[in-house]
Amino acid sequence: MAPNDSDAQTPRPLRRTVARYAVPAAVAGVAAATIGLVPALAASGDPDLPEITAQELVERIAAADAQRLSGTVKVTTDLGLPSIAGLGDLTGEDPAAAKSADEQLMRLASGTHTLRVAADGPDRQRLTVLDGDGEYTLVRDGDEAWAYDSRSGEVHHEKGLDAGGADGREAARPPVTPKELAARMLAAVDGTTSVTVGGTARVAGRDAYQLVVKPEQSGSTIGSVKVAVDAEKGVPLKFTLTPSGGGAAAVDVGFTEVDFGKPDASAFRFTPPEGAEVVEGNGPAAGAREKDGGALRKGLEGLEPGKGGSGPNVIGEGWTTVVELAGPGGAPAGAPEAGAGSGALPEGAAEFLDGLGTRVGGEFGSGMVFKTRLVNALMTDDGRVYVGAVTQQALVAAANDAAK
Prior knowledge:
The chain is of the alpha+beta class. The protein contains 10 helices and 18 strands.
């Protein structure tokens, strides 16, 4: 969706302040971290495939070992957030100039995008994100990796990567394929979820079973997750997450074309375009990135468990899990109200934020609830933050429980 018009008129210093207090949409993964299995038989459908239980289908996903494939993936995300252009405007930066893989892939947090992917084992992969007339490409070929941003004209090159897998940066990037999303969803299992086989489908010209995952708890903003699983290969071909409030899918990621044959070796060769600036991994830009990364790690230390009691506090279980975090001013959860000069909002910012959220109160005190279609966040007046893919009522109840 387009950036909010009223926000477009906000002075830049205030935009930076608002961005500092924003809760990342990536915490939506908290809600998909705990699911259980309830066996069910496949319903009739087209194509006509042999019946299979949910347990058998999940086992088939786990056993899938298709290390060679190529294809096109369509990614549509509608969390009710501003477009990445709007998010860049909040920080006072031009998103088209973003150079890191994390910044580029965060573009997938809103709108519709096309990805072209190819893989030939753990040491050869290619991912291209097409965005209008621009593209961002990541290529790995053995111990060598390239990242190219057509907008900035910069190519980042690294050598000496570990064999047999991705390096730390690649492992930390957001999941962008149906297989990665399904793997995270099924990683942790308990009894809070119904998992059934909901018929069959055709995806990217291939027969597939539909694995349907639904919360058995009330209070979740997630209605269901549907994973289309290739009947022959066991590879997830499509991942669709629908909010409990209905409407269009909040996340819809699926292959429109897929080939499980060996990709041509040329897919993993990269030649910098003429005129592109090539930055080597050990160059000055790499030092700047390491410096920025160090600052980011330092800033996240307060969110780690066991850091002087300021780590996240997990409230509830399963789909209604809520995480209590340290406040934006750096105060640990439960700390006294922050005053001026300790990270408090500047004059006028509180009034601006009031227009973006809903004021609530309870045993925890008072605060503001900020909503998306999937993730809600409660920021209390004394500097605590509660986040979860839960309803406003469930979020307030969690904050009240934490205050007891």
